[in-house]
Design goal:
Blueprint lengths: L10 E4 L6 E2 L2 E2 L3 H10 L3 E6 L6 H10 L9 E3 H13 L3 E5 L2 H9 L3 E2 L10 E4 L7 H12 L3 E4 L5 E4 L2 E4 L1 H12 L4 E2 L5 H11 L6 E5 L2 H10 L3 E5 L20 E3 L2 H9 L7
Helix pairs in contact: 1-9, 3-4, 5-6
């Protein structure tokens, strides 16, 4: 993990939960840090694996915290799923067993979202965090896969932080279908290259021009390494200082920062004349 802070990145790919906010509250120094980055012209793209939200939802949430942003500065896993399927197969018939954000983007992209009773028509099964999970939903998804539907997973996180403690993550909903069928899904969200390459295209930048920032080694750092970008961990979420010594060599981030304020101070304020 780099000790000297010399490189100025033109863009940041930022995680949200655990990095920008925790339990609905901004992390220490986040508001000021993001204002500083915007002021010096650093491009920011917020990338989230949350399948329940749209970019408009996420932008409204940050603005309510006092963080200036627009929906164009967000990339959700729902948008990434919809765009991937459109590029691979054109408008398609989808059985979606995950949050409404995925459904909304898929409809916007011209895909047909099927009902549970239409499982036999499914060309794709999309699975992720699913508050409505039920025996009927599991059965429809199983039958869709056994009838030839392609298997898409939003992201592999086993758990994610909730207001009252850990909650099942998207991976917990994907695994039953793997177990029942022996099939492996194509993962679209972090740490997949799919969403990260889309993020670079949305920013209009190369991997060596951006820094990928988050609070998780298995998601955020792996995602950055998948595209060959530098990576940073903030100690405001899942990863704690005592965890750093246990990080495998191949997954060590380029930098570790206490929070986003620390990131800005170390990367953008040491040499003001270079900004």
């Amino acid at each position: 993990m780099r000790a000297e802070m010399k490189k100025r990145y033109l863009g940041l790919i930022l995680d949200l939960d655990g990095c920008v906010y925790v339990d609905g509250e901004p992390t220490e120094g986040a508001i000021e840090a993001l204002k500083k980055l915007r002021g010096i012209g650093v491009r920011i793209l917020y990338v989230t694996n949350n399948p329940e939200v749209t970019s408009e939802d996420s932008a409204s949430r940050l603005r309510a915290m006092g963080i200036e942003c627009s929906p164009e500065e967000f990339l959700t896993v729902g948008e990434a799923v919809a765009r991937y399927i459109a590029s691979a197969s054109g408008p398609s018939k989808l059985l979606i067993l995950t949050g409404r954000g995925v459904e909304e983007y898929c409809r916007q992209m011209g895909h047909r979202v099927l009902s549970l009773d239409e499982w036999m028509e499914a060309e794709y099964l999309v699975v992720g965090f699913d508050r409505k999970i039920s025996y009927r939903r599991l059965t429809s998804g199983l039958r869709a896969l056994l009838s030839g539907a392609k298997f898409i997973g939003t992201n592999p996180d086993a758990i994610h932080p909730g207001r009252e403690g850990p909650e099942p993550g998207s991976g917990a909903f994907i695994v039953p279908f793997e177990y029942m069928t022996g099939m492996k899904p194509l993962i679209i969200g972090k740490p997949s290259r799919v969403i990260m390459e889309l993020a670079l295209r949305k920013l209009g930048m190369r991997a060596d021009e951006v820094l990928v920032v988050g609070d998780r080694i298995d998601t955020d750092v792996k995602a950055g390494k998948a595209i060959g970008a530098d990576t940073a961990i903030t100690l405001t979420g899942i990863t704690r200082e005592e965890d750093l010594a246990e990080i495998p060599r191949g997954l060590r981030p380029t930098y570790v920062f206490r929070n986003l304020r620390d990131l800005v101070e170390k990367l953008y304020e040491q040499n003001p004349s270079s900004l």
